[in-house]
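Fig. S4 source data, part A: sequence.
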Amino acid sequence: MNWVSKDDLSAQVQTALEKLAWPKIGSDGRLMEWSEELKENDPGHRHISHLFGLYPGNQFSLRKTPDYLAAARKTIDYRLAHGGGHTGWSRAWIISYWARFHDAEKAYENVQLLLQKSTLTNLFDTHPPFQIDGNFGGTAGIAEMLLQSQDDELTLLPALPKAWSTGYFKGLRGRGGFEVDVHWKDGKVESASIKSLLGKPCKVRFGDTVKTFDTKVGQTYTLKGERLEK
């Protein structure tokens, strides 16, 4: 076996990444599934793997790649219009897609559909007879509505629906090594508690308000109010 040092391996991975094809946008404005435009035999198919860059990946985001976000949204609209999202795990995936679009009401609508159409009385997800993907995916989607971190920042309540106007969450994790608790009322942040697990700089966003500060390992930082005052 040939062992490769971390530095050499990192260089090899970076070289390989640069050779990978970036997704394309088709003539109809949708994100292309293949490297060329092909007719879909099943336009409403439940698999939407070419949106990996939207979720669970982080290639696409509202601020960094708005064109790709628009193309991904057209892809979702088209699939759903042709009958997509009809299994529990597929519906769960769609919750997270809408959350990444910051479309709170669409995300909430799909949470409701997941519970109404794909959840048994014992709360097992049904495909049938049972599929854990829908359970895990549904909770992941709800977490995505409350906290996101794919843009090198912690975004608080990015897709909060009107039905959840007041509430709290505790212990959600964000990229960069942060553990986050948030309380909100009438759709506005009352307090956010952020524990730094790695000591990296922290950037927090709520709406148009952004707060950046340095952190130390193991320290907890509290922000108050909608303007995130420390």
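Fig. S4 source data, part B ends here. Helices lie at 6-19, 66-81, 88-100, 104-117, 132-146.
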